[in-house]
């Protein structure tokens, strides 16, 4: 697209500034005499929320009829890269059909707390899983020559005070938890755009952060698209453009345009910086325009795809031989308002105007042995005795009771956070009462985030549908009756109670700051390291068949950190029906060099197996899979020592393990000072002989040097004056000698 530079050379300064903000809420600006057309962006990421020209931005329900696919919280549980790519392709087709150039998503902020109001849009508490799901989603959408906008960069992990609050995050935590998902998606899928978050990061608005937008995003990760603001997120437009924030959305009625114009004229903003932003925007405009194609998408076909995705993503949390439901069951009770009107999406900017919605009752229409009782109302948390008694009587007279429960619409939305993890009291009461009279009680959940389950031990089966999209009713019935075997795994931990969450004491906004005091211990990294009991662990999910793990093989037992390790394991379907299993690989650092989680997810693969079939799954591990972010060198570092390779069904269900040794190729910078301890000195191979010799001099003969070192390991060199009577000149000479050995 060499002609773009020619176009820019023909633009006036005013026209360049003009291109760097939106024409309205959904469109970029055009320059007709230069052949620059207007293009449209639209909310996503799990459906197309294209608003008409007449619609008000705040009217989230006034958009075109479209297909609502399962939300990010749901699809992440599929652990299926190909499924996310297929979803992306379908969304790209819809965008082409509706002349939408950029779909605003995926949204990939980490689920720091289960209270996050927008968690239903986000993928996971784990950065690796998040990055893999995001990259696949982006690849699918952009295969249709439609752009994506990876959001929200970065640390938009709650809704409260999101437009002003500062996320206070240390560098290591930022690099290990909150940036890797963006990094993986940018490097492997190359999104057309990245959207900045509303919040500040360590005091600076992300839309003004040169560190985030230029140093990391562009210079480190190689991002070559344009950066846009979240809607209304711009604080200082000139500073933002300098930092690398190219496009302001939706614009500010020309106010910020004038500030940019004046800044160029008075020399506080380089026109060359402005030119680069314009070039990045134009490249993506023309990439869409030059690849426009006539497109008509089949809504019914995409509805069927939404149904398939929901079945592949739902998680069977518990099953004591009640599911699947059998055709011989003569009477089944469907209980709960969500059986008739399911909760299938969240509130806010991702709200889709679905062209149709299937309920579980719709899906079983004509099955005369299934009977319905409402049980509760969704908009008021009040036990209706008439509805409760009707449900209890129906459950008593049935062989199986299926309760459709979940969170009401008002519980989960953009703009605000949840205040607790509880289901409505009326639903908890219904479940307890029904379970008391019907031992074969199944609970189906419709929610975008974890909920507490005080009745978990009183029911034999729980099916987590999350927010399963407009085909959720059909998908639920497919799973209940075994038409599809559940294969989803939890992409987040379900704690027993809110107080167990690692961010519980620091989630509140204080003085317009949010302190990430739990550091890298987010989600299962915290629960598993602390060995805290959980309701259901990360990666957990049941099946209607069984799987055996065997023959774990590593191709080497000793590698350098610049070498790869190949790991393979056999998975066998030992049951009687077809099923899919998510094989999870975690790495555990045994070196005790740094404070790290007890294990971290590094690879996964979903395999499909017929009864009796065995498949070998292979993984390749590289340096980053063993490393932590070392702030002293501002880079990833692998301490020399042993690491455990864990093959698991969940973070709490380890099936096989193997231990290897990794040798670091990086020498950390080190300088001996008066306050350097003996333990630090003996950790360096080139200094160890000198220290052992020194211990022989200052200690008694025939004393075990290791035992002696254990006694003095935390003593600094300066203490030799007090404990051994060594003079300053001798200590200074020793320090000089040791530092020379390190050169």
Q: Could you explain the architecture of this structure?
A:
It comes from Turicibacter bilis. Keywords: Hydrolase. Belongs to the glycosyl hydrolase 3 family. With 743 residues, the protein is of the alpha/beta class. It has four domains: 3-51 and 63-289, Glycoside hydrolase, family 3, N-terminal domain (TIM Barrel, Alpha-Beta Barrel); 306-536, Rossmann fold; 547-663, Immunoglobulins (Immunoglobulin-like), CATH 2.60.40; 678-742, no CATH class. The protein contains 23 helices and 29 strands. The strands form eight sheets. It has a six-stranded mixed β-sheet. Strand 3 (102-104), helix 5 (127-142) and strand 4 (147-153) form a beta-alpha-beta unit. Helix 12 (299-313) crosses helix 16. The longest helix has 19 residues, at 271-289. The protein is globular.
Topology:
Blueprint: H1 3-10, H2 13-18, E1 41-43, E2 65-66, H3 72-75, H4 81-97, E3 102-104, H5 127-142, E4 147-153, E5 166-168, H6 171-178, H7 180-189, E6 193-196, E7 200-201, E8 204-205, H8 210-220, E9 226-228, H9 237-243, H10 255-265, H11 271-289, H12 299-313, E10 315-319, E11 332-335, E12 353-354, H13 360-363, E13 370-373, H14 385-396, E14 400-406, H15 425-437, E15 441-446, E16 461-464, H16 472-480, E17 494-495, E18 513-515, H17 524-530, E19 534-536, E20 547-554, E21 558-560, E22 565-573, E23 579-589, E24 600-609, E25 614-621, H18 623-626, E26 628-630, E27 635-637, E28 641-650, E29 653-663, H19 678-682, H20 688-698, H21 705-712, H22 720-723, H23 728-742
Parallel strand pairs: 1-3, 2-12, 3-4, 4-6, 5-7, 5-18, 6-9, 11-13, 11-14, 14-15, 15-16, 21-29
Antiparallel strand pairs: 7-8, 10-16, 17-19, 20-22, 22-25, 23-24, 23-28, 26-27, 28-29
Helix pairs in contact: 4-5, 5-7, 12-16, 14-15
């Amino acid at each position: 697209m060499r002609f773009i530079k020619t176009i820019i050379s023909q633009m006036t300064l005013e026209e360049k500034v003009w291109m760097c903000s939106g024409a309205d809420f959904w469109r970029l600006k055009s320059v007709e005499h230069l052949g620059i057309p207007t293009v449209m962006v639209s909310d996503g990421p799990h459906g197309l929320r294209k608003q008409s020209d007449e619609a008000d931005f705040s009217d989230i329900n006034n958009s075109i009829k479209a297909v609502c696919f399962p939300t990010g919280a749901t699809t992440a549980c599929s652990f299926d890269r190909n499924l996310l790519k297929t979803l992306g392709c379908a969304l790209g087709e819809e965008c082409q059909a509706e002349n939408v150039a950029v779909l605003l998503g995926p949204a990939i902020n980490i689920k720091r707390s289960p209270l996050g109001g927008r968690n239903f849009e986000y993928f996971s508490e784990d950065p690796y899983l998040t990055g893999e799901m995001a990259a696949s989603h982006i690849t699918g959408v952009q295969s249709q020559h439609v752009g994506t906008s990876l959001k929200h960069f970065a640390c938009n992990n709650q809704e409260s005070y999101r437009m002003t609050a500062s996320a206070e995050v240390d560098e290591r935590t930022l690099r290990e938890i909150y940036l890797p998902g963006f990094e993986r998606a940018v490097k492997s899928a190359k999104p057309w755009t990245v959207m900045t978050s509303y919040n500040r990061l360590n005091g600076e608005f992300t839309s003004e952060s040169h560190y985030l937008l230029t140093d990391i995003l562009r210079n480190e990760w190689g991002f070559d698209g344009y950066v846009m603001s979240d809607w209304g997120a711009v604080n200082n437009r000139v500073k933002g453009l300098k930092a690398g924030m190219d496009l302001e959305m939706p614009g500010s009625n020309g106010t910020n345009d004038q500030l940019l114009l004046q800044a160029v004229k008075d020399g506080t903003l380089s026109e060359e910086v402005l030119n680069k932003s314009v070039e990045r925007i134009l490249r993506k405009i023309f990439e869409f325009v030059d690849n426009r194609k006539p497109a008509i998408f089949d809504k019914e076909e995409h509805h069927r795809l939404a149904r398939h995705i929901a079945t592949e993503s739902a998680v069977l949390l518990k099953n004591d031989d009640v599911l699947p439901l059998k055709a011989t069951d003569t009477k089944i009770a469907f209980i709960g308002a969500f059986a008739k009107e399911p909760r299938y999406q969240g509130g806010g900017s991702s709200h889709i105007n679905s062209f149709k919605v299937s309920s579980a009752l719709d899906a079983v229409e004509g099955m005369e042995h299934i009977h319905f009782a409402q049980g509760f109302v969704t908009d008021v948390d009040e036990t209706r005795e008439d509805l409760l008694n009707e449900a209890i009587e129906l459950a008593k007279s049935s062989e199986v009771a299926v309760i459709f429960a979940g969170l009401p619409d008002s519980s989960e939305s953009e703009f605000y956070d949840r205040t607790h993890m509880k289901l409505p009291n009326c639903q908890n009461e219904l479940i307890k009462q029904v379970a008391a009279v019907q031992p074969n009680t199944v609970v189906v959940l419709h929610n975008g985030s974890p909920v507490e389950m005080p009745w978990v031990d009183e029911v034999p089966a729980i099916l987590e549908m999350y927010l399963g999209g407009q085909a959720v009713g059909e998908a639920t019935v497919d799973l209940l009756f075994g038409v599809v075997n559940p294969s989803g795994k939890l992409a987040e931990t379900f704690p027993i109670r809110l107080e167990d969450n690692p961010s519980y004491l620091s989630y509140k906004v204080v003085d317009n700051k949010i302190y990430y005091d739990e550091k890298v211990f987010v989600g299962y990294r915290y629960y598993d390291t602390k060995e805290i009991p959980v309701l259901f662990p990360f990666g957990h999910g049941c099946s209607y068949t069984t799987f055996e793990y065997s023959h774990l093989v590593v191709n080497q037992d000793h590698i350098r950190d610049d070498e790869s390790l190949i790991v393979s394991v056999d998975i066998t379907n030992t049951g009687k029906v077809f099923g899919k299993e998510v094989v999870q690989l975690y790495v555990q650092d045994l070196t005790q060099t740094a404070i790290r989680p007890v294990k971290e997810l590094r690879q996964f693969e979903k395999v499909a197996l017929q009864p009796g079939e065995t498949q070998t799954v292979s993984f390749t591990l590289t340096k980053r899979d063993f490393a932590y972010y070392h702030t002293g060198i501002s880079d990833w570092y692998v301490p020399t020592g042993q690491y455990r390779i864990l093959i698991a069904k969940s973070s709490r269900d380890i099936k096989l393990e193997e231990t290897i040794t990794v040798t670091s190729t990086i020498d950390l910078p080190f300088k001996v000072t008066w306050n350097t301890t003996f333990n630090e000195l003996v950790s360096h191979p080139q200094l160890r002989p000198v220290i052992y010799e020194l211990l022989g001099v200052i200690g008694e003969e025939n004393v075990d040097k290791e035992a002696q070192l254990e006694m003095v390991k935390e003593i600094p060199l300066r203490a030799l004056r007090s404990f051994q009577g060594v003079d300053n000149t001798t200590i200074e000479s020793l320090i000089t000698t040791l530092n020379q050995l390190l050169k």
